[in-house]
């Protein structure tokens, strides 16, 4: 015997969430016919804005299987209800498979929180003008998010009530030396007086056949840097200073650092600034040595490797050191006291904020706060270093960051869910710990599915200002840079005391296209949902207000962007 049950289901995306259901088949035909199907046996639903018809037929057989006997003895109504439930479960699973982006999904996800992706490693900048407005039909999820807003607002209010910007306790120099004995044995306390960059000569004990980069970790762990070091090997011996049978190489640290933030335009600034003839950067745009490599971190999710010694970091500035050495040698005969104008820069966008490694190496924490931060060590060697920071509206920064690093299923819905989860995790930390402890909490930062903490600019800047003077910073906004590149670059030139450029050089620097812009496939996803934007503006609001107060500039409150 064969018994067929056909069901017609229509789900609507409107707020009413109406459902019309009619079951046909079996001995009873008293049900009202489905007006949408008009007598046809269909299941209607939408995937990516397109209406689709699927025939749902369940065949029940009794021949050769006594176990189905009990099922067939059920009343017809119970059988219809059970089958209808199975069909709905099947449609929920199918909707996830058929809709990668969850856009126009008629059956919304039953889950409100995404999984934990691996923590990204390196970030670059982006031009906000690349984010074009797209007009999409609101999804069912977007409507449900609006309804969920009051509960999310409670989380934001809970976080805001616990925000307290406290002054951190600074470590003394002896504590720093105990943590990094080798670093302090390599970098001297005084540098050459005739070099704008902090440089010094150290003896090289190898021969002219010695490979100075044989054990460099940047070379060993990354094939793409090997060609750079191959070129350095060829000219290495010719750039040594030979005195009384001994050989000396010039070592240098950066004169200035572009310390952050990721997805705020640091790559574009770097690409333009390196066109200035007086500026030389490290062989690698973002060495991430101060924040990651010196701890043996390549990708945190891969665990710890051997720590990169400071010598490996200094090797990255050899090309610039060769040019400075040539200038010093030429000037020594004519004008021994002449200052060499070349300055070295470094542009790791993690320098300002990433202190995730501290929990693995520093155990003398106070209430969960790190006893040492990156800036403590930089200041110990370079108390006069110049620091450039590029920032943007943290709301837009977070969305850009998400689009850049999310590997699959990117959508406004997915972003909203991850933001909601991150806020909940951050609030849970704030219930038990201080703001600083949560911002630098490695476990929390790796658990949050979006890097919410990177946009808390005020927390990081205030901690940097405990060791460096405010005059040593140039704080820029990506929004201003995107609208007037020439003005931004002139501010940078003035801050670094660089010489003027010719009209041709300046035109090349200021009129070239923006670097590292948003990928076309990410642009097609459109903007975040307005409700997500509202939630993030409210979360970042107190931090932006504090930042604007510290910098005495209301533009950094991002009340209108």
From TrEMBL:
Q: Where in the cell is it found?
A: Golgi apparatus membrane
Q: What class of enzyme is it?
A: transferase
Keyword list (alphabetical) reads: Disulfide bond, Glycoprotein, Golgi apparatus, Membrane, Signal-anchor, Transferase, Transmembrane, Transmembrane helix
Which membrane topology term applies here? Answer: Single-pass type II membrane protein
- Source domain of life: Eukaryota
TM helices/strands, residue ranges: 80-98
Q: Does the keyword Translocase apply?
A: no
- Identify one Gene Ontology CC term for this UniProt entry: Golgi membrane
**Sorted alphabetically, which Pfam families does this protein's record hold?**
Sulfotransfer_1
Q: Where is the Sulfotransferase domain?
A: 254-516
One Gene Ontology term from the biological process aspect of the record = hexose biosynthetic process
Answer yes or no on keyword Membrane: yes
InterPro entries named among the record's database cross-references = CS_Sulfotransferase (IPR052654), P-loop_NTPase (IPR027417), Sulfotransferase_dom (IPR000863)
A GO MF annotation of the entry reads:
N-acetylgalactosamine 4-sulfate 6-O-sulfotransferase activity
Annotated EC: 2.8.2.-
Reaction catalysed by this enzyme: chondroitin 4'-sulfate + n 3'-phosphoadenylyl sulfate = chondroitin 4',6'-bissulfate + n adenosine 3',5'-bisphosphate + n H(+); dermatan 4'-sulfate + n 3'-phosphoadenylyl sulfate = dermatan 4',6'-bissulfate + n adenosine 3',5'-bisphosphate + n H(+)
Task: Name the cofactor(s) required for activity, per the record.
Answer: a divalent metal cation; glutathione
* SUPFAM superfamilies noted in UniProt: P-loop containing nucleoside triphosphate hydrolases
Indicate the quaternary assembly.
Homodimer; disulfide-linked. The relevance of homodimerization is however unsure. May interact with phosphorylated proteins in resting B-cells, including HCK.
By sequence similarity, the record places it as follows: Belongs to the sulfotransferase 1 family.
Q: What does this protein do?
A: It also transfers sulfate to a unique non-reducing terminal sequence, GalNAc(4SO4)-GlcA(2SO4)-GalNAc(6SO4), to yield a highly sulfated structure similar to the structure found in thrombomodulin chondroitin sulfate.
According to UniProt, the name of this protein is Sulfotransferase
The gene that this protein is the product of is Chst15
